[in-house]
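Appendix C: a fully annotated inverse folding record. The material below is reproduced so that readers can follow the format used throughout the book. The structure is listed first as tokens, followed by the designed sequence.
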């Protein structure tokens, strides 16, 4: 009998003809996460098995909890037999050290060559355990212990407890996206939600020194580091936005400052995305939260790009976003008091229903194409990993 980790896929099982692509991507992501561990990984369309754990179960399970595409994680015992008497005796041996008053047995029978039904097998195992341990009782509604038995083509798997995974799709299985990452609460949450749907992230940050500080930049690097736990690593593009922002401030009516600034950011983001094979832009905009996030503003800003823009938190209220940011451990970093580009030069009365034609007219007052070209040409790239023993920023 071998002790190993069994992984259940959950949503991946709905993929039918494409399931092998998703499961193979999940295996690759697990291998990257566990590259320091001497384990072997096997899989079929129903389950994945991790062997050679050397009793290092807690560390490995904690790592698996940071990988999207996993529905459940269980420590299980593998028997190379489908013989019911052998299975019953092994279960009896396994529960000797467990303290419980009530139990139930749940059987899954993916091996349809077995003539008995799952219910019949559960009943026989339950009756055997009651005979051997008359002091316990069956409780199918609220048992102290649940004995899980899976009868598969290659043998039997027994387990008692299970840990929830993150669900979603394996990162990279749905292509790449570029996250517009500010130092605020919303954009890291948006990035996390995009990763959950299988999108591999790169990130884009706009800095405006001396108006924004090195602390603000390091804050964003730290947020990217938190996201890299789920993304394997993150390439962070840092754009110097000072000349563009100052030119907007000097030449554009102040009520349109934010709208024009966001249009410039979108133009830059689209170019960076296309150069890096990203299929979509992702940001933390939430409908109505600020002046640039009214529906009219979003339309006026969005019209300068052709690339799709995904807004994962668009329909969340602020409290929902904060709750998720605390769950993924970005909140405490996000609330550090360092201003980013979006919080400087904010007009007292920003337009909430901008006219796209006026936006175009105002933009003619500044040489924005040349400024955008210069900003992209001189931009910095930082590779961020989640590995503890390395510096969180490695310059490429």
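Designed amino acids, in order:
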């Amino acid at each position: 009998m071998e002790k190993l980790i069994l992984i259940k896929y959950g949503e991946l099982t709905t993929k039918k003809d494409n399931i092998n692509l998703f499961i193979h991507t999940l295996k690759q992501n697990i291998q990257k996460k566990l590259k320091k561990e001497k384990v072997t990984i096997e899989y079929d369309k129903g389950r994945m098995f991790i062997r050679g754990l050397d009793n290092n179960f807690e560390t490995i399970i904690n790592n698996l909890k940071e990988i999207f595409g996993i529905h459940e994680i269980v420590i299980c015992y593998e028997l190379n037999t489908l013989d019911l008497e052998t299975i019953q005796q092994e279960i009896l041996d396994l529960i000797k050290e467990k303290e419980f008053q009530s139990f139930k047995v749940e059987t899954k029978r993916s091996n349809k060559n077995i003539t008995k039904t799952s219910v019949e097998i559960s009943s026989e195992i339950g009756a055997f355990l009651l005979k051997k341990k008359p002091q316990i009782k069956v409780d199918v509604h609220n048992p102290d212990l649940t004995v899980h038995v899976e009868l598969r083509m290659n043998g039997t798997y027994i387990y008692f407890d299970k840990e929830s995974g993150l669900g979603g799709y394996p990162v990279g299985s749905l292509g790449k996206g570029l996250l517009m990452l500010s130092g605020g609460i919303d954009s890291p949450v948006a990035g996390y939600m995009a990763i959950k749907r299988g999108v591999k992230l790169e990130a884009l940050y706009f800095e405006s020194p001396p108006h924004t500080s090195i602390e603000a930049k390091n804050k964003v690097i730290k947020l990217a580091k938190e996201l890299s736990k789920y993304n394997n690593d993150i390439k962070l593009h840092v754009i110097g936005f000072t000349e563009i922002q100052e030119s907007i401030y000097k030449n554009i009516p102040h009520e349109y400052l934010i709208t024009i600034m966001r249009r410039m950011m979108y133009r830059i983001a689209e170019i960076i995305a296309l150069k890096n094979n990203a299929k979509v832009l992702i940001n933390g905009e939430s409908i109505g939260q600020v002046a640039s996030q009214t529906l009219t503003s979003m339309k006026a800003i969005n019209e300068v790009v052709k690339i799709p823009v995904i807004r994962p938190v668009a329909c969340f209220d602020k409290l929902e976003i904060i709750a998720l940011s605390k769950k993924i451990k970005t909140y405490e970093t996000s609330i550090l008091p360092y201003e980013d580009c979006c919080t400087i030069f904010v007009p007292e009365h920003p337009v909430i229903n901008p006219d796209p034609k006026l936006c175009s007219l105002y933009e003619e007052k500044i040489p924005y194409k040349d400024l955008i070209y210069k900003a992209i040409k001189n931009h910095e790239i930082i590779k961020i990993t989640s590995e503890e023993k390395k510096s969180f920023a490695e310059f490429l």
